[in-house]
Amino acid sequence: MSATARLRILFEHPGIIRLIGAHNALGAKIAAEVGFDGVWSSSLEISASYTLPDASILTMTEYLAQAKAMVRATSIPVIAVCDSGYGNVHNVIHMVREFEAAGVAAVCMEDKIFPKVNSFVPGFQKLAPLEEFASKIRAALDARHDPNFMIIARVEALIAGQGLDEALKRAHAYVAAGADAILIHSAAKTPEQIIEFFNAWDFSAPLIVVPTTYYTITAQELEAFGVKVVIYANHGIRTIVRALRETFSTILDAGTSAHIESEIVPMQQILALQGMPELKQNERLYANGRQPAPANQIETFS
Amino acid sequence: MSATARLRILFEHPGIIRLIGAHNALGAKIAAEVGFDGVWSSSLEISASYTLPDASILTMTEYLAQAKAMVRATSIPVIAVCDSGYGNVHNVIHMVREFEAAGVAAVCMEDKIFPKVNSFVPGFQKLAPLEEFASKIRAALDARHDPNFMIIARVEALIAGQGLDEALKRAHAYVAAGADAILIHSAAKTPEQIIEFFNAWDFSAPLIVVPTTYYTITAQELEAFGVKVVIYANHGIRTIVRALRETFSTILDAGTSAHIESEIVPMQQILALQGMPELKQNERLYANGRQPAPANQIETFS
Amino acid sequence: MSATARLRILFEHPGIIRLIGAHNALGAKIAAEVGFDGVWSSSLEISASYTLPDASILTMTEYLAQAKAMVRATSIPVIAVCDSGYGNVHNVIHMVREFEAAGVAAVCMEDKIFPKVNSFVPGFQKLAPLEEFASKIRAALDARHDPNFMIIARVEALIAGQGLDEALKRAHAYVAAGADAILIHSAAKTPEQIIEFFNAWDFSAPLIVVPTTYYTITAQELEAFGVKVVIYANHGIRTIVRALRETFSTILDAGTSAHIESEIVPMQQILALQGMPELKQNERLYANGRQPAPANQIETFS
Amino acid sequence: MSATARLRILFEHPGIIRLIGAHNALGAKIAAEVGFDGVWSSSLEISASYTLPDASILTMTEYLAQAKAMVRATSIPVIAVCDSGYGNVHNVIHMVREFEAAGVAAVCMEDKIFPKVNSFVPGFQKLAPLEEFASKIRAALDARHDPNFMIIARVEALIAGQGLDEALKRAHAYVAAGADAILIHSAAKTPEQIIEFFNAWDFSAPLIVVPTTYYTITAQELEAFGVKVVIYANHGIRTIVRALRETFSTILDAGTSAHIESEIVPMQQILALQGMPELKQNERLYANGRQPAPANQIETFS
Question: Are the beta carbons of D115 and A62 separated by less than 8 Å?
Answer without folding.
Answer: no
